[in-house]
Amino acid sequence: MSGHPEGSFGARLTEAVAARGPLCVGVDPHPALLEAWGLPTDAGGLERFALTATEALAGSVAVLKPQSAFFEAYGSAGIAVLERVLATAREGGALVLLDVKRGDIGSTMAAYTAAYLADGAPLAADAVTVSPYLGFGSLDAAVEQARLTGRGVFVLARTSNPEGHAVQRARDAHGATVAQSIVDEAAKCNEGADPLGHVGVVVGATVGPDEVSLERLNGPVLAPGFGAQGATAEDLRRVFGGEQRGLLPTSSRDILRHGPDPDALRAAVERTRDTLASILP
Questions:
Q1: Which of 30, 101, 165, 237 does the annotation list as catalytic?
Q2: pLDDT digit string (tens) for 218-252?
Q3: Rounded to whole angstroms, what are the CA distances from 236 to 10, 97, 196, 271?
Q4: Is the pTM of this model over 0.85?
Q5: Structural domains in the chain plus CATH codes
Q6: 188 annotated active-site
Q7: CB 190 within 8 A of CB 47
């Protein structure tokens, strides 16, 4: 179980990135990856895959991002593996961003908050992804709990999947897109925070360069799509321009495909980190 972290999430993230670079690596035990590693697509294969990747990378990357769905698919055995992944990552010094994309209202959102952001919870992570599409205010419990416990939330704002375009690009009566309104709400939560606030946003590395302004966010930005999904380091510069403070490019398959050899996984991280260093300040 995870105790109370020391310091704010924004401060801990800034320190981790300064020491290890901005790369966030996903731990996504996709069945196809298990097969590529020569592992069975069962709970035993899941455990070997997830722990091998975590043990290899937790000592060298700033953030590890387990995708909860791939663990949940194996029922209670998968959740037990996820608990071990969280503990192993922490032992290696990586921050854990648990990709759960939860979003609900009332007591249900409070229960999700207790599961992932409360001190002592078996699945407590340093941060989680959340969905604001029942209204940004539906996330209040998670945002406040994260602040109180030194954790963070990353709010889906402008994702790169085509299905999200219709909603996220829609405009309100003032002409602002839904995605921009989400970023603006997150910015309000981060006002006055130093060096970064605890409310981040998710903006895909493959979206258009002028779709959202992050100038006032004062929080971290998770940028999925880098690597196997097609976005390059140059795309990061194109999409985010000078608004790169707190940027966390995330790569999963492009790193994990080099397993199961731990040295090959670490070498893939080093190559990716060198590429990012030539683009990001």
A1: 101
A2: 999 999 987 656 677 778 888 887 657 799 999 99
A3: 21, 20, 20, 16
A4: yes
A5: 9-277 (3.20.20.70)
A6: no
A7: no
